Amino acid sequence: MTMELPVVLVLWFVFSLTVITNGDETIDLPPCDYSAIYNFGDSNSDTGGLAAALYPEGPPSGETYFKMPAGRASDGRLIIDFIADNLGKPYLSGYLDSIGSSYGQGANFATGGATIQRVNESWFQNGVSPFPLEIQVEHYTQFKDRSAYFYKETKDECLRKRLPNPDGLSKALFTLDIGQNDVAFGIRSLSLEQQKTAIINVVSQFISQIRVLYERGARAFWVHNTGPIGCLPVTHAKVKDPLPGYLDEIGCVKDQNDVALLFNQQLKVEIVKLRAELTNATLVYVDMYAAKYELISQAKNQGFEDRFEICCGYHGIDYDVWCGNKGNVNGTEVYAGSCANPSAVISWDGVHYTEAANRWIANRIMNGSLSDPMVPISRACHKQMPVS
Questions:
Q1: What separation in angstroms does the CA of 270 have from each of 7, 273, 290?
Q2: Which family does it belong to (predicted)?
Q3: CB burial string 340-377: b at 16+ within 10 A, e below
Q4: Among 206, 261, 303, 384, which one has the highest count of C-beta atoms within 10 angstroms of its own C-beta?
């Protein structure tokens, strides 16, 4: 006797699969059942780490969604928040934030100003975080070991719910979004030839930390490359009477973007090599640069104002008044408050993106169309994936 599945259940199963073509081969990928999300990065994905460890962002940050400062360099949510939404997970608590945090379905080790490279004392004067990627990975290791101990030892069910089940580690998604500060530091302090050498070393350190995460149980990696630094409004605001060729066709500083592209090219090469080494891992390389450049170049077609508009802050050739601060602009004291409509502006403070821009970028990357392999984030745990 055979049992037939209900029609509704059959249809649900069929349409829950993602069908990907690899040459003549068709691969069906069911949704991944991620146990948690663990994120590593800089201010582009910091949800409260640096604010808890050092000085928090003040008003008007957080005004759009959280209605108060929420440890994010934006008026609202970041790309990592929209990723969590997409995967049915709560917003990630910063590992360094002990107040009101829950880590049952993930944790965020990112901190604003973080680099891939190890830092020294002089870097701190340039706003670099004391928590580079190596330290973030060490924080993860401490978190993994200590949470596993307390999860097994405690009889407090409320505490257990706030901690990850150690048996689900291999089913977690590990997201990494870091490198922008390394590239920016090189642009400020090194010649072009020195930057090329530095990029090789920086990417090598990046790859070595992915190896460490793999050795400590990570299996599914979603790795963002770095964005178009030369398109940041704070960079554009410093340009005066540029020579021909200094800016690209949309007004971005071409040399700075070229360095970011060199970093991305090297990162992709090394990720491809790493796939052959870490045979039980899935490594998805995500072209964040392409997504951000597309948004910036098509700003008005996508419902945004001028691509170099800044919502909160004043920046010029010889002055910077950062969001939420007072300062002097051409002899007049000003307060850098929020613009009237942040949802119509791409840049929040000249460096970071508004919630509206972060939502646009997240939607652009999560479907996998800008990834290698071209797989949506909801299916990024599968080993059998086509690679471009």
A1: 46, 5, 19
A2: Belongs to the 'GDSL' lipolytic enzyme family.
A3: eebbbbbbbbbbbbbbbbbbbbbebbbebebbbbbbbb
A4: 206
β-strand pairing of 371-372 with 282-286 = antiparallel
Angle between helices 254-277 and 180-189 (to 10 degrees): 130
pLDDT by residue for the chain (388 residues), tens only, comes to 333 444 434 333 333 445 554 443 445 789 999 999 999 999 999 999 999 999 888 999 999 999 999 999 999 999 999 999 999 999 999 999 988 899 999 999 999 999 999 876 555 556 678 999 999 999 999 999 999 998 888 888 888 888 999 988 899 999 999 999 999 999 988 998 999 999 999 999 999 999 999 999 999 999 999 999 999 999 999 999 999 999 999 999 999 999 999 999 999 999 999 999 999 999 999 999 999 999 999 999 999 999 999 999 999 999 999 999 999 999 999 999 999 999 999 999 999 999 999 999 999 999 999 999 999 999 999 985 555 5
Tokens of 333: 């004291």
- On whether the CB atoms of residues 49 and 96 are closer than 8 A, the answer is yes
- Cα–Cα nearest to 226, from 176, 174, 160, 275: 176
Which residues are designated catalytic? 43, 349, 352
CA dihedral in degrees (383, 384, 385, 388; nearest 10)? 100
- Domains and their CATH numbers in the chain: 24-300 (3.40.50), 301-364 (no CATH)
Neighbours of 236 (CB within 10 A): 19
